[in-house]
Amino acid sequence: MENTQDLSARVTKLQENVLQWEHRLQSEHGGPDAFRQAVGELRTALDDIGRAGFLRLARAGEVSGDTLDRNDCVYRFKQVVDKEWMTLWGKVVVPRRLYQEDHGGPSRVPLDERCGLSGRFMVPELERMAAFLGARLVPAEVADSLGEVLSEPPSRTAIQHVLTAVGQCAEDGAGQLELALQGAAALDAGGDTLVVSWDGVTVPLREPAPKRGRPAERPMATDTAPTAWKEAGVGMVATYLTPLDPQTEEPQRVDVRYAARMPETKMTTLVSGLVDQTVRAMQQSCYDHLVVLADGRREIWRTVDEHSEFDGFIRILDFYHAAEHLSKAAEHLFGKASAKADRWFRSWRHKLRHEPGAVAGLIRSISYHRRKLPRRSERYRQASTELGYFRNNRDKMDYAHYHALGLIIASGPVEAAAKTIVGHRLKRSGMRWTRHGGQQILNLRVQVQSKRWDAFWNWYLEQTTPATIERIAA
């Protein structure tokens, strides 16, 4: 146990040590090695002072009464119990007075409550570091990273505990959290265009999965069960500022809010959250343009149709997905290695991008060239599939008009979010996730990527810190 009266002595010792090194470095004995040694000793001394100062500050919140009263319940002092707290300067053992009702039951530790450390083994400042880094890195990497800046970093297990606690708190209080963030970190309404978009990305789950491929002739005892790959959902609600000259400038993103959910049926929770954010954004400001942007999957556009909140939105099918289908159509119509396929593709890609109403001409061109193929051939069947794609989505492909309005026509931002929010953290080598474990991490990553970490952390502290301080009974 550290003595709080040592603080002044330690500060004095630090001053003396700095003066000694100052004289040495000014002499001929100074040099890079000596300077690094001096800085190392300075860091050690500052950590020592930090622990002593922390203990002194913590004990300043201790109560001394024999009883304390809360909600007409009287708690009596029972004993002093030591607790080890992990701080920014290392572990500190703090003695705390424990109280309990006469008939037993849960005990109360006023010092923990006054310091905001009830149920915590790590001070909130360090807890925040661990959670922030854990949203980006695995616990082992977080421990290694903190080890470079702290004299005594938390363990991997302690870091994992923090990630679980913070991520689950965000999950349990999702509705309350969103309302709090709407007030503390609302979507910047400085743009004139509101864009809603979502997409899917597969993640490896720790769930049973059918074996694929030919069975092994000599199965090994170490064979592992196949990984189940399911589609998680990533979405965004963003504001954009249309350019003054759409012909030479691109739309500028003003602000964005991301959402991510582990695999679920029809991405129900994800879409519901995006709809709520969209409604709040429209209540907050008026926009010249409202846009839903996505690829050509029927499930997404069917979901858009099911939500009246998207009535009146301009629906845009991602241009690059359209170009991919255009390339496939060229291969089926003219042959994969055909120069004519390349010329046809390049010509219609330019027209689709720059000429109003070009999709109607494209549909006629595909129909015309398809008639030259044998009706029972595979190329005819594939060309018919691509023809159906453009017919079904022609109302979302007026790219020249969208461009003239200064609107974004590519879903690259949400696809990039799928990689950065989900892929970079949940799809590393050898990883397999439970749905709730993966969601805990995603709950943190979306706040980091949405630039709402400060507001999120303040909310988290409010949820996990007692709002009242015990009153000492007379």
How many strand segments? 9
- State the major sheet: 5 strands, mixed
Helix content: 40-55%
Give the strand content.
Answer: 15-25%
Instruction: State mean pLDDT (0 to 100 scale).
Output: 92
Shape: elongated
Structural write-up:
There is one protein chain. This protein is α+β, with helices and mostly antiparallel strands and 474 residues long. It has 17 helices and nine strands. The protein has helices at 6-26, 32-59, 110-114, 124-134, 139-147, 156-172, 174-184, 268-284, 298-306, 319-334, 339-354, 358-370, 378-392, 399-405, 412-426, 435-449, 453-464, and strands spanning 67-70, 73-87, 90-100, 193-205, 228-241, 252-261, 289-294, 314-317, 471-472. Helix 4 packs across helix 6 (156-172) and helix 12 runs antiparallel to helix 13. The radius of gyration is 31 Å and the shape is elongated. Residues 468-474 have low confidence and may be disordered.
Secondary structure elements and pairings:
Layout: H1 6-26, H2 32-59, E1 67-70, E2 73-87, E3 90-100, H3 110-114, H4 124-134, H5 139-147, H6 156-172, H7 174-184, E4 193-205, E5 228-241, E6 252-261, H8 268-284, E7 289-294, H9 298-306, E8 314-317, H10 319-334, H11 339-354, H12 358-370, H13 378-392, H14 399-405, H15 412-426, H16 435-449, H17 453-464, E9 471-472
Parallel strand pairs: 4-7, 7-8
Antiparallel strand pairs: 1-2, 1-9, 2-3, 4-5, 5-6
Helix pairs in contact: 1-2, 4-5, 4-6, 5-6, 6-16, 10-11, 10-13, 12-13, 15-16
